[in-house]
Known about the structure:
The chain is mainly β.
Amino acid sequence: MTIPIPFVRLVRHVDLADFGCEDMASGDIDGDGQPELVFMQGPAMLAAAMFRPGGAPGSWYGPNYTTGDDQALDCVTAVGLDGKIRWQRGKPWAKDFPFRTHGGFEMIRAVDIDGDGRAELLRIRGDQLQSLDGRTGKTLAAATLDNDGYSQITPARFHGDATRQIVVKPCSDGVDGHPHACPVVAFDHHLKPLWGRRDFNRVGHVPLAHDVDGDGREELLIGFDCVNPDGSVRWTLPLTGGKGHPDRRTIVDIDGDGLAEMVIACEDLGLIVSDLRGNLLWRRDAEHCGEAVVGKFFADRPGLQILHNNEHWRVDGDRNLGTAMLDARGQVIWESPRDLYAVPVDWPNPLGPQAMLTRPHAADPEDGRPFIMDGSGKTLALFDIPLHAPRAPRDRLPQDHLNVGDWGDYYAYRVVDVPGEGNRILIWTRRDLWIFATET
């Protein structure tokens, strides 16, 4: 039942027909001033040779994780917020059971790489890095990667001008002979090599470009390292022990002193807060910190606040370590046994405290819908959608269900800004897309 809060309304429902998927990019790709949505059906990182049916030696995914049909699937569809298809390349999945995909959210990105004011589509497919024309879907340029194991694209302004350069890396399992999520390579905006294979410290999943020294050129914050535009390491965070790597990363001034800090969810190393010179400011222990959401969630507290989770929560005395809300100094505001992932959303007033769009992280929750909660953990609104995303009967699936969501049986969500209209909250499955608006 929907909680009757007057600040959210359903703008549109879109039937995704046969082209729906989890891996979606958003951005103004045709120059009309409005964001479009681009869905990419395919196996994502599972397109690599190491995941071919029969399996590669040592692959923890097992010998039957994908099928040949999974690996052959390649369909890209651009849709406007009005629900109308702009273009489609490739053929959508047509079988009566779902395709399997994993880790593809950053294998397709809408980025203006040439500085002309209109976003191109960057994507990885196999060993190809491609730039697509956002108006037609046609390939503008392509580069052949030195391996088919790359699965993450990060744009960066290494040159300090309007162009963007492109950093490419594996999302998790690395290329043979390299550490986890390595190697890292970079290309210019023409898709020409900028610098070749680099291995960095505890690379993880969330590289982020940021100008740390104010010279107009961005550096790359990746793993524990700050990397210069030429690929050399500027500094490394003094972190040792554990096996953790960054799962989430945010750069923002959390304490209001005018200087940005870096907030990292770093698995068994916990929640890490540093300055942008490589100095640790404070940290909080966790068994597996996989999320760190930073926002202004309380109007009456100084600075920003951080919601972080502990995916393998346990009870330690009287303290539940599932999710904790912290202030800018790391002091606990509240804790809960719920394990949550979230993104900030202006709610209901962009001049007031923010809220969070979140969903349960449990494998099979009683209610699997995303919801909006405030800084105190109170639910503000549920969305009028089914309790669960569609799920195929297990006897119709070709392999065991190793990772939750690889067959699309969960709700994906995103907050998109529409110029002149404010936030749009997108919630979707492989079959349906709901577009909600928050109103002041």
